[in-house]
Design goal:
Blueprint (H helix, E strand, L loop, with lengths): L3 H14 L4 E5 L15 H6 L7 E4 L4 E5 L4 H7 L6 E4 L5 H8 L5 E4 L6 H12 L4 E4 L4 H5 L12 E2 L2 H4 L3 H14 L4 E4 L2 H8 L1 E2 L12 E5 L4 E4 L7 H7 L3 E4 L4 H4 L7 E4 L6 H9 L3 E4 L5 H5 L3 H28 L7 H13 L4 E4 L4 E4 L22 E7 L1 E3 L2 E2 L2 E7 L4 H18 L2 E3 L4 H13 L10 E3 L8 E6 L14 E4 L2 E4 L3 E4 L2 E8 L8 E6 L17 H18 L5 H10 L4
Helix pairs in contact: 4-5, 14-15, 14-19, 16-17
């Protein structure tokens, strides 16, 4: 198993042994997570792909890997094209590809704990048109040939205190119970890890960079709940925190418990609960209501305590980032700084706060052409020096008890070309346009996406990722349901209390990447004479935007005023946390245009 070719051969041999003609390998876990524990990194083990979203299909004579526009370059660098076809999503899909490539009469396996019911239906229909069959497996064949597969984490759960959560777990369960009664339902299945963490005010260390614990839960209409988690992960403090209304069971007992709802009405989320959960409920005689997990929306709409905590986290994180920006502005032009060293230095500045629990994702530290790889992940093999005359893109964030941060800055090392400055300024203009937006209550994120792209579009340019994603409260750095995107979501009405990113970009393959990202809070907006309730964004992230990369003549008076006001606020919030050379640098970096 020393090469990815060996692993592919081993999987094909296993498929022959279990009488399958193919198998689908998604990058997720049994909780439909975006970021997964090491034990669930089947796609990475099989192919070498290190991105956070993708799927693969293995047939006897061909294999394909499916990624979206964020990973177009990365997948070609990490996955051997001699053995894998590269397929782009949403231009195609696993189901569509199978419908064209599966042999007539073929049996294609899938793990029902790793797919939604909708995916199973679509793939099954596509195969049926070819006279082929989709087959659920009891044992994942990748696991059968993965000799050193890690065990799931046994890290202890920790209590997320009410002073950070702003609402007790009992209050959250009662709100869910009231919702269930209104829906005439008896219980709701919670399988998304961030929903469990939020509902029970617990956190964990089972997924790198995301403070969640591997568990399932069933919340009942009487406000009691059953929590399914490995016994060794629970200590007395957590037991006391959960209280008598939460019954704790072994995680291994969850599937069997789904058979106990005969004649009862159970809510299960078709986007977040895997097909196996629906199948078990149906087999047990439950009446299923396919509705969104009742934790999703209240989790997304932050309460006043969470908002205050997030602002405190942003203030300290902005100071750490500003210290880093001063350091790189001083050291990178001298030479000798590379991507790995810069990422390590930024993490060190965050650790100096004394409050960092973890990074919120692996830092994207991209110099020159590596910055054009949207979700680039630096490693020894790809590590580049940060050179004069280039752009350096750093996308990073921290996990603090009181908030989760995510911020991107693009830094001109030396003097950028006129093209680089112009395209940086187009991205900045889009960032400002979105940040200044006012919109009626009920507006969807997808309706705002064009504000950030308009200036790039005017010059025939674009970027292949969404403009904004939701962010959790000491939880997932990517949190739904809100998004600012024209594809893959963006149809959730924005509500006061939601936190999103504002991150337009531009990427020139082989040369450089640009992205400017702040987090923003949806807030009510008082508009004189307005005939509708209006909303807008409050910017939460505070760190300088590189003045040396801006073609100032391209900015309107309003845009210049926005940037000057933003930098004045950065100086006000971050300045008192700095001293000496870093403070002097910040004052210059935040000076009016």
């Amino acid at each position: 198993m020393s090469t990815y070719e060996d692993r592919l051969k081993a999987l094909r041999a296993q498929l022959v042994r279990v009488a399958l003609d193919g198998f689908v390998v998604p990058l997720t876990d049994e909780h439909m997570s975006e970021y997964v524990g090491a034990y669930a990194q089947r796609l990475a083990w099989l192919t070498g792909f290190q991105g956070s979203a993708g799927s693969a299909v293995v047939l006897p004579e061909e294999a394909a890997i499916f990624v979206d526009g964020r990973y177009t370059l990365q997948v070609r660098e990490q996955v051997d094209g001699a053995h894998w076809q590269y397929e782009s999503v949403p231009q195609t899909s696993v189901a569509a590809w199978l419908g064209e490539h599966v042999p007539a009469g073929g049996r294609i396996g899938y793990d029902p704990w790793l797919h939604t019911r909708a995916w199973v239906k679509a793939a099954g229909e596509a195969l049926a048109e070819r006279g082929a069959e989709l087959v659920a497996v009891d044992t994942n064949p990748v696991d059968a040939v993965w000799p050193d597969r890690p065990a799931p984490s046994d890290a202890k759960l920790v209590v997320h205190e009410d002073r950070y959560a702003g609402q007790s777990a009992a209050e959250k369960r009662q709100a869910m119970a009231d919702w269930l009664v209104a829906k005439h339902a008896d219980a709701a299945v919670l399988s998304a890890l961030d929903s469990l963490a939020w509902t029970f005010n617990i956190r964990g260390k089972d997924v790198e960079r995301t403070p969640v614990a591997l568990a399932y839960a069933i919340v009942h209409a009487d406000a009691t709940a059953d929590l399914y988690v490995a016994p060794e992960k629970i200590d007395e403090a957590v037991v006391q925190h959960l209280g008598n209304a939460v019954r704790v069971h072994d995680r291994a007992d969850f599937a069997g418990a789904l058979a106990d709802f005969a004649g009862k009405t159970v809510v299960a989320d078709p986007e977040r609960a895997v097909a196996a959960i629906f199948e078990a409920l149906e087999a047990g005689g439950a009446n299923i209501l396919a509705l969104r997990d009742p934790a999703v929306l209240p989790k997304a709409v932050k309460n006043p305590v969470e908002i205050a905590g997030h602002k405190a986290a942003q203030a300290r994180d902005g100071a750490a980032l500003s210290r880093f920006l001063h350091w790189i502005a001083t050291e990178a032009p001298k030479g000798g700084v590379d991507e790995l060293g810069a990422a390590a230095k930024l993490e060190a500045f965050r650790k100096e706060t004394g409050l960092l629990e973890d990074l919120s994702f692996d830092t994207i530290s991209g110099a020159g052409p590596n910055g054009a790889v949207v979700h680039y992940r630096v490693e020894e093999r790809t590590n580049r020096p940060i050179e004069t005359g280039s752009f350096y893109l750093v996308d990073s964030g921290g996990q603090y008890r009181d908030g989760t941060t995510d911020v991107t800055r693009t830094i001109a090392i030396g003097t950028p070309s006129e093209e680089m400055k112009r395209r940086f300024t187009l991205v900045l203009k889009g960032h400002i346009a979105l940040g200044r937006a006012q919109f009626p209550k009920g507006t969807r994120g997808g309706q705002l996406d064009v504000l950030a792209r308009q200036f790039l579009w005017a010059e025939g340019l674009d970027y292949a990722h969404g403009t904004g994603h939701g962010v959790g409260s000491f939880l997932s750095v990517h949190e739904g349901p809100q998004r600012i995107a024209t594809f893959g979501g963006g149809d959730e009405p924005l509500q006061p209390g939601m936190i999103l990113s504002n991150e337009p970009g531009y990427y020139k393959t082989g040369e450089y990447g640009i992205r400017i990202e702040n987090l923003v809070l949806v807030e009510p907006r008082d508009v004189p004479g307005a005939e509708r309730e209006m909303l807008g964004f409050e910017t939460l992230t505070f760190a300088p935007i590189d003045r040396n990369a801006i073609a100032t003549e391209m900015l309107t008076g309003e845009e210049r005023a926005w940037l000057d006001a933003y930098h004045a606020r950065v100086l006000e919030i971050v300045g008192p946390q700095l001293e000496g050379g870093a403070l002097d640098w910040l004052k210059a970096a935040c000076a009016p245009l």
